[in-house]
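Hey, sorry to bother you again with one of my protein questions. There's a protein on my desk that I can't quite get my head around. No rush at all, and the record is pasted right below.
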Amino acid sequence: MAVKWGKKSWVQLVLSFLALAYVVVDFTYSTQNNVHATWHEIIIVGNLHGFESTVGEVMAPYWYAYLIMFAVWGIFVTLYVKISEHARRYVNIALTAGWIGILIWMLILDIPHRLTDRDKQILQQIDLPKDSIQPMPTGHTVLLLGESWESWALDARCTNGDSVCTYLLRYMDTHPCLYVHQLECQKRHGVSGDGQLIIQSGLLPMRYGVAAMTHPEDPRPSYVQIYPKGVLVNSKDKYWNWQETAKQYGYDEYHILPQNIFHCNDSLLLEELQAQIMRADTPTFFGVYTISTHNPYRQHTNQVTVGDEYTACDKRYLNCCAFADRQIGRFLAWADTAECMKDARIIFTSDHNIFPKDEKRGKCILIMSSPNIHESRYIEDAYQMDVYTTIVNDMGIRGGWRGFGINLLDSTAERNIRPEEALTLSDWMIRHNYFDKNNNK
């Protein structure tokens, strides 16, 4: 039924349609600049202005949903709801306050960070002049980026007393490794996209928005680039613009399995990895984004039996971890005997956490073996940003970008950069395309 309109109703209606127009325009921009993005990534996190949920970093920013909610509410109330003029006055006040809040929030997010003297000091410490003599790799490096792997899975036991992740634990018992038990996850709104960024470039996620969505083609530093060749094995799905970002990390080839993420598994991925390694005729960097531990953890059942102290979701997750552990174990056993893996470096680490953080959960892991590691080293706590710095140092890269972390293989290393400082500076570097402007440094 039609209602009596006033000037405020017209204003509210115009604001509502402008909000919907913004969503359409920004969505069009996103699809044009992120050709491999999926609908849910663009709608939920592919926007230029993130909205941090009160649930914390577990939830993605629902900025578009926020705008659409206000727009639909405004149009509906203005056109169809029959209420008294007195009540409508309060409705318009509430809606107007909401629009003002959105505007202020957007302005706050768009305030650019200005480099401080401390920021410049940090950059001088970690972005060194490039060494004219780069190390020449003598063997392959394999990066297994584990989907949603958490440290408590390695601590979990079956009802018969056996470990859920027998093969990874056995590998660490029989090989000198660096093992970080609880790696502090530093992903934000980009989930796997953020994990790929942190581990492979040493940068941290953007404060708002997702670098893989808004800056997918910007140059990135990466240890992959010192190798004559980089090969990435993945499933066919194009989440988080990985085909675009992989080019910037330094991968030359992509071997994409035909199955999507819910029909692919780590057995297929690691078989393809093994085949690619056997074909390699030069030291190569191999990356694999594993998939078997992806939620909702229903693909692999009846792998292990665990007690009722675990929830139904925990049990599904641990069964998937057990399956993935077995496949990784098969690959590691092959690597032990393959001549082409004689001088190989193998890194297994999480892309991000998946469970809410508490004293035991919500932490990632790092397991690394290398020809340069002769004695096992156990570290209880570290940060994800330390992984890049550790790999760079182990590879012998002396100049260029060092990352924000510390070398975990150096027992004397001291942390001089706080994670919050690193996050702010990294956000500035991504937004200002720092590495494109400083590529000749």
Q: What stands out?
A: The first strand starts at residue 141 and ends at 146. Residues 7-109 form one domain. The chain is about 45% helix and 10% strand. The chain has two domains: 7-109, 132-437.
